[in-house]
């Protein structure tokens, strides 16, 4: 393998989305796959040949310096892959969210990154939506967020029919809902105080089905959340500034309600990257490959896990 090129680990749908971006950015890359059938399908759909056999067999043969690695594989393997590529000498790694399914797995990645001096970032692509960047601009112009609320309701009737590993389904709040939780606290500030409540359960998610909570954030904002996986709803984040209410519902679109009005107004933004690629991915990869990545670090994700566990009423 050549020096200073991106190593993309995975041949699933997310890996295919990364390939589209890497091609558009004219970045040289190689792809490490696993099964022959998966690699063949990947090549058919992308025109890119993937190495078969899984990442483990290639670690010793990677030429140094191993500069940039993007890990886009099954959630159950994310933390192990991140640890192994740290040990192989990767300079920086972008690992798909949530980077691990337990706080122990996240801490293993942190330990490996410190020992091997690897910068590890977590791929929460919704931070890079055009809608979110537009919301951040309004927040800055208006002097900050006064309060915010969010909803990470999951469609249980869809999720339970998905072909997902039982362990992944049991961790669904971390594996999937964390997109919204991370985004809300990214925009409004991490919790300083947080009170949470939960009730109910689902056959595939025994740790709860209805989640509510409230608190205050590091940015001086009050917040609340309400998520009901048994009833109806959808993901959303709403933020109140001194001048307007910002609506991200769906997350891909930004609307506002100006102060003194009840009219919901669409905000004109350049959605080109989010229309031509999986939303957020183009800007996320561009940031990762820059000299100053604006991405959540693996240590940031450790802080996130404390929030996830508190919502689930679990001890760290």
Description of the structure:
The chain has 316 residues and is α/β, with parallel strands linked by helices. The chain folds into two domains: 6-123, NAD(P)-binding Rossmann-like Domain (Rossmann fold, 3-Layer(aba) Sandwich); 127-271, Dihydrodipicolinate Reductase, domain 2 (2-Layer Sandwich), CATH 3.30.360. The chain contains eleven helices and 13 strands. The protein has helices at 13-24, 36-46, 78-87, 103-116, 130-142, 156-159, 166-170, 172-188, 272-276, 281-288, 298-311; strands spanning 6-9, 29-32, 66-71, 90-96, 119-123, 147-151, 191-199, 210-217, 222-228, 236-240, 244-248, 255-258, 265-266. Strand 11 (244-248) and strand 12 form a beta hairpin. Helix 3 (78-87) runs parallel beside helix 4. The protein starts with 5 loop residues before the first strand and ends in a 5-residue tail after the last helix. The mean pLDDT is 95.
Helix % is 25-40%
SS field, number of helical segments: 11
User: Rough shape?
Assistant: globular
Number of strands: 13
Task: Note the main sheet.
Answer: 8 strands, mixed
Q: What is the number of independent domains?
A: 2
Q: How much strand content do the residues show? A: 15-25%
Low-confidence stretches: none
The CATH topology label of the largest domain is Dihydrodipicolinate Reductase, domain 2
- Spatial order of the strands forming the largest sheet: 7-8-9-6-10-11-12-13
CATH homologous group name of the largest domain? Dihydrodipicolinate Reductase, domain 2
Order of helices and strands: EHEHEHEHEHEHHHEEEEEEEHHH
CATH architecture of the largest domain: 2-Layer Sandwich
Quickly give the structural class: alpha/beta
* Separation, N- and C-terminal Cα atoms: 41 Å
Overall residue-averaged pLDDT value: 95
